[in-house]
Every structure is written in structure tokens, then in C-alpha cells.
Amino acid sequence: xxxxxxxxxxxxxxxxxxxxxxxxxxxxxxxxxxxxxxxxxxxxxxxxxxxxxxxxxxxxxxxxxxxxxxxxxxxxxxxxxxxxxxxxxxxxxxxxxxxxxxxxxxxxxxxxxxxxxxxxxxxxxxxxxxxxxxxxxxxxxxxxxxxxxxxxxxxxxxxxxxxxxxxxxxxxxxxxxxxxxxxxxxxxxxxxxxxxxxxxxxxxxxxxxxxxxxxxxxxxxxxxxxxxxxxxxxxxxxxxxxxxxxxxxxxxxxxxxxxxxxxxxxxxxxxxxxxxxxxxxxxxxxxxxxxxxxxxxxxxxxxxxxxxxxxxxxxxxxxxxxxxxxxxxxxxxxxxxxxxxxxxxxxxxxxxxxxxxxxxxxxxxxxxxxxxxxxxxxxxxxxxxxxxxxxxxxxxxxxxxxxxxxxxxxxxxxxxxxxxxxxxxxxxxxxxxxxxxxxxxxxxxxxxxxxxxxxxxxxxxxxxxxxxxxxxxxxxxxxxxxxxxxxxxxxxxxxxxxxxxxxxxxxxxxxxxxxxxxxxxxxxxxxxxxxxxxxxxxxxxxxxxxxxxxxxxxxxxxxxxxxxxxxxxxxxxxxxxxxxxxxxxxxxxxxxxxxxxxxxxxxxxxxxxxxxxxxxxxxxxxxxxxxxxxxxxxxxxxxxxxxxxxxxxxxxxxxxxxxxxxxxxxxxxxxxxxxxxxxxxxxxxxxxxxxxxxx
Length: 695
Description:
It is built from six helices and 49 strands. It is mostly beta strands.
């Protein structure tokens, strides 16, 4: 067991040594310098406690490089200026005996105690002891560097300062510093600093010095000036006559992290000794790393006031006086720490969160403790009382709620409007009611005005518009909406008039279906069933010549026409055809039938008229047909197709007539064809197609 404890202690010591070595590798030296005209003061400091501990034994080496001020050419390479180590304890003790008692000298005494003081080392090390000793070393390091900033003597005693008096104005100097070390395992950065003796260094004053009264005194805030040299601490001085200033503290004021605000690095100081009613001004004087005082920064003049504010009012009662009158009464409790109340203000809002607006038109004096306000029935009221003092401070009472009962419902909503877009988004709006006590609305919908309307939401709608969504993949063409208004007493209005909103139609009509066909020598008879959709607009019968890829619309059927058959005589024999029905609804959605494929037979024995011609007469109302004579007593069935692809039988004449006049025509395109039949009605052949245009 004892061996296990020894092993654990040894392991913790090794871990501590490794951590110390890692921290040392990350640490470095910093260097600054300041030109005083006749000399240059060089200051340096290790950034970490481990480096400081090592360098306290071995000291520092400072070197200087000289450059021509005009050409920047090297005059001399780096030359050793000297080695600097902390004062030994005997020298420090002798100096302390001869020093006067002042703040800077006290910093020297503290620095020597930190340098030579021994940390307590326990006989048995544990993890807590290792942490404690590490924190103690960190604290000693931080305090030693602060002492060096506050006192040149302390900086000399710690081996962190050198005054170079051997300088020339036409020469630039570069200083660098090394920490002497026996162990080369830990390599430290070598810092450098350039100084041009032609220009004197100076520190500027802090900026943006603000003062304001707070509950515990006067708060002073300022932003430090961070240039080549930053301030390590500050003196704060105060004057009540703007002439004679005294320091509020004898020791410098340190910038603590808790007093740095946001990213502005604003520093705060509280003057808790300021007296109410007294006028003050303040000076902020910075102390830099060379123990020099910067230029004072002067604040604005401030008269310290009591910002605790007046006593908080307490609402006692809200009394309904009838006829729309509400009496508010309140009281205040004496509190000597508070300021005297100068006036009151009564505020009111319809919601707890506001906005609150003042209801009193004239000032309410501090001796008045009641007020009568006008309040309509059904309007909720949240009252709060503000008390003001002469300094502009105020305090606020807790809220108190009241509402005069109301049994009168609001009028039914009007001005309903709405639409449903192509994505199914619903927008419904209505006019705002004239009543002041309208609280909210509820929206109901149905797919049929005769059906039961259901609410679209379980919650109230607090605006005069509503957005929702619906499916468009439905055969229900419309949606119907109603709106009901509610007041703050939850009285319910009558239902609004029904709003009808059309859904965008994206559903194609039912496809038409071919039911039968019959192919004869000179005609193809086709029959079908039209689409059964209620919004059917038209159906188009098309024929596709599969040999030539020609597409021709043969027939257009409107929704009012129940035509479901067609006789096609304008075809060619020995050809492959495909017939197609296209149904279109009122929203221009279309659906196609299954195609009907037909092949006409070739018959070389059929008669043919190849020279059918058509001419329009001068009056443009008559067409003259002419054809060649074919022997025999055969008949000519003359067919005419108009601009709408409607084909009709015009007349039957003898082929020997060789001519026919078609009159009383209207403007449009016409095509003619003759079907040759025998006296017994047998089809023997057909003519070519003749086409004319009547203007």
C-alpha cells in the first residue's frame, strides 16, 4: 500500500514537470522601449511564470543594432549591451533601509519580496499541492510585473530595465533581449524593438471619459488609448470646484477584467463617496509601463443626483362607477431612501405587454390619489401608475386588470375576399369591424355550401386575413368560407355571407372512348363515347396518316353537342390511319383516348374522277364544280367540308352533268369530293379533292 502511494506521488510530480515544460515552450519575452531625447529606456518582461522563474536565476542578455536613420543601412551589427539579473537579497535589504516611504519605493520592496520570497513546499506532494504551488507562482509573477510597471526601481531590481544613454539622433536602434538559460531544450522567442531617436515618444490621454449618477454613487468610464505603450493602471482625481483636484485613492487603480465592457475595453470606476447635490469633475491619469504619468483626461461636469427614483405607487382599487366611468385609486409608502414624487401619470393598455398610453390630460399632483377614466364596456384595460421626481426618474406600479361586462355581440364580418393559387395556397381576407372591442375571428370552410362548415383552426385568428393550403387533386371545384367575429367578452357575431372560391383545376377530364368502326369502299364510319366530365369544353377528332405522318383535325365537338359518330370519306385507299379523340375541359386540361388504327383496302377496279375542279364566281357566294365525263349511268354524290371540318352531302346528280353550282355560301374555306355510285347505290369510286376560299 505504501509503495502504491509513493508511485502515485511520483507520477503526479512527473505530470507537473511535463506541464511546466509544455508551458515554458509556449511562453515568450516581450520588449518595449521609450525615447526620452537624451536616453532610451528599454523594458522587457517574460509572459509566463515559468520563464520568469528560470530567468530570475540566469538573468537576461540585451543587445543593440545600429542603423543609419536615412538609409537604414547597418552601422554596427548586434552588440552586447549587458547582462541583467535581479538584485541579490543582500543588496535589496541594504537598499530598503535607505529608501523613503512612498508608493514607488513600496513597489520596490514588494518586488524584492516576490523575487526572493520562498514558496512553501510540503513534504508530501499531492495533486492539490501541485496546483496550489502553480497558482502561487503565477500570482507572484503577475504582481512582480505590475511592480516593475509602477516603479523604475522595482524594474531595475527585477532585472527588467535598462537606460541607454549612449545614443545619437541620426541613428536608429534595434534592441533585442534573450533569457539566459542552461537548458537548451526550451527555446524562447527573441523579441526586438525599433527606436528612432529623432522622434520623442509620448503617451496620449484616455478618451471618451463619461460620468453618470447611479444608485451607489458616480460612475466614471473611459476607453484606454492603446498605441505602442499601454497603460497599466490609473489615478482618478476629483474636484468640486473644477480647480483643485485630489486623488480618490493613494494607490493606482488597476484595470480588472470584470470592469471591461464588451469589445470597447471600456473601464469603469465607481466613486461611492460622491454626495447628492454636489457638482464634480474628474481627471483620469494613466500610468504606462515605464512608470510615467500620461496626459490627464478631463470628464464633463456632473451634479450627483439621487437616481433611486420616487416611491413605487400601489393601486388600491378599480371601481366601476357606471356609464362608462372607472375610478382608479392608489397610495404610496414613505421611504426616506427615495426621492419625492413630483407628479403621477395613469397609463392604460388593452394587453399586458402594452403599448401603454397615458390617459390623464393634465398633471396629477403628488397629493392626488384617485383618477376617473372613461372605459367602454367589453374593452379590457390594464392600468399602471407612473410616479416622477424632479430629476426625471420614475417608478412604476404593478398592473391591475379590469373589464366592464358586455353582452352585445359584434356585427357579422363583411367584405370577404379570397383566392386559391396554382400551388393550393389559400388566402382569405375580410374587412375590420367598426367595434372597438373586437378581439379575434374564427374561419370555417366546406366543399359544398349545403354541407356543415368546420373551423380551419382551433385557435382564434387575430388579424383580418388568413392563409392556409388545400389539395388540388380533387373533383370538387370550389371551396366555401364563413367568418365569425368575437369580442373580448367572447360574444359571437352572426356568420358572414358565404364566400365562394374556385380551386385551380389541374384534373384532366375523363378520356373519351372509341366504341365501334366500319370500313366501306368509300367511307369509314366511327362511333365513340364522349368524356363524362362536367367541365368538358370540347372534343376534337383527329386523323393521322401513318404513311406520311400528316395530322388532320376532322371534327370539333363543343360541350353542347352530343355528337358521337363521324363518317370519313376523305381518305385514301391502301393507307394506314390512326384516329384520336382529344377532350379539353374549361381549364384547358386535356386527356386523350386510346388511338384507333384502321387500314383502308386498295382496289384498282374502282372508278376515279381525277379532274374535279372548283371555282368561286364573282359574287363570291357561289362555287362552280366541274369534272370529266365517265361513261355509264352512274351517279355523283357531292360532299362538302366547311372550315369547322363538318362534312355534309350537298346533292346527288348524274355524272353526265359534268358540272354543279353550290350557292348561298358564307366566307370560309371549303373542300369538295365526289363519290361515284351505281344506280343501285353501290360505291364505285371517288374523285380528287377540290379546295376553294370564299372571302
